[in-house]
Amino acid sequence: MPTPSTRSAAGVRIIEITTPRGPFKVWTKRVGNNPRIKLLLLHGGPGFPHEYFEAFDEYLPSEGIEYVYYDQLGSYYSDQPEMTDEMLALPRFVDEVEQVRRALDLDKDNFYLFGQSWGGLLALMPAMDPTVLAEVKQLEADGKYEDPRYLELLIPNHYEEHVIRMPMYQWPDPLKRAFDHMNPKVYIPMQGPSELGASGRIANWDRTADLKKIRVPTLVIGARFDTMDPKHMEWMASQIPNGQYLYCPNGSHLAMYDDQNTYMRGLIDFIQGVDGFPVRTRLSRPR
User: Which residues span the domain enclosing 191?
Assistant: First the structure.
């Protein structure tokens, strides 16, 4: 069990967790106060920080939804130990979330879990100009991930098409900070160096057969331009007994930004529906 946590700022709670390499500390921050609705946010990467989730700040507080930012071990605000093989094992990441859940007193009566990106990752080759794709794949085959040409090709053809559909110079500040603070010592071993598909430890992770065992209400979110096939996301929702599907027709991997109203309205309606609220037809926040 984690040891008692310390607080260093309003809403911030530093939680000590146990790992195969000993105890380390992870950073969390609570926003809002609702004894019935507590949403624990699991960021993507792995190795990215929580910062890009700050998009929620304009929507969830006004709807009375409490949520908790959490930087997983190895991410910017938490301890960043050497990530040995045993530290990069998927069961260890799962155990870490469980330790955080217990430390925050999250249980079946108040606990909602939100995971974005790597928890349900599927490798999907983006729709890309064949000539561009061939050059990108050749650079990857040659191991030239640091070559300026690699990013020169990926930024307009991948990031601005499938990660967030806006020019990079217009990216929201929380997203820019998240990219600046990404820890490659976690991201690359888990995801792999290529941005066009998983080749690291999570490449063969498959829990398809277990979807039918998920009995709690579950919302699966897909987006038209996402690197994760929206049709497959819809199928996943259909395999979960209490699954629902939200489709973002204008969104990409970060539809919380590029199809924001659809994304936030769907997420809030789902949470409030589970909690017994009538489904809202629109957000209270002015459009």
Answer: 12-126+175-274
Which segment of 118-127, 180-189, 205-214 scores lowest on mean pLDDT? 118-127
Task: Please indicate whether residue 162 is annotated as part of the active site.
Answer: no
Q: Of 117, 252, 258, 259, which one is the catalytic site residue?
A: 117
Domains contained in the chain, number: 1
Task: Kindly state whether residue 168 falls inside one of the protein's structural domains.
Answer: no
Is residue 253 flagged as an active site residue? yes
Say if 67 falls within a structural domain. Answer: yes
> Is 8 designated active site?
no
Residue 27 lies in a domain: yes
101-119 confidence digits (pLDDT tens): 999 999 999 999 999 986 3
- The one catalytic residue among 43, 71, 226, 259: 226
Q: Catalytic residue, from 253, 258, 259, 269: name it.
A: 253
Task: State how far the alpha carbon of 94 is from the alpha carbons of 82, 97, 124, 196, 200, in Å.
Answer: 18, 5, 24, 25, 17
58 domain residue, yes or no: yes
Query: Which residues are CB-neighbours of 169 under 8 A, at least 6 positions away?
Result: none
| Cis peptide leading into residue 81 (ω within 30°) | no
What are the DSSP calls for 232-277, one per residue? HHHHHHHHSTTEEEEEETT--TTHHHHTHHHHHHHHHHHHHHHTTP
Q: Which residue has the tokens 């490449």?
A: 203
**150-182: pLDDT as tens digits:** 999 999 999 999 999 999 999 999 999 999 999
pLDDT of residue 5 exceeding 60: no
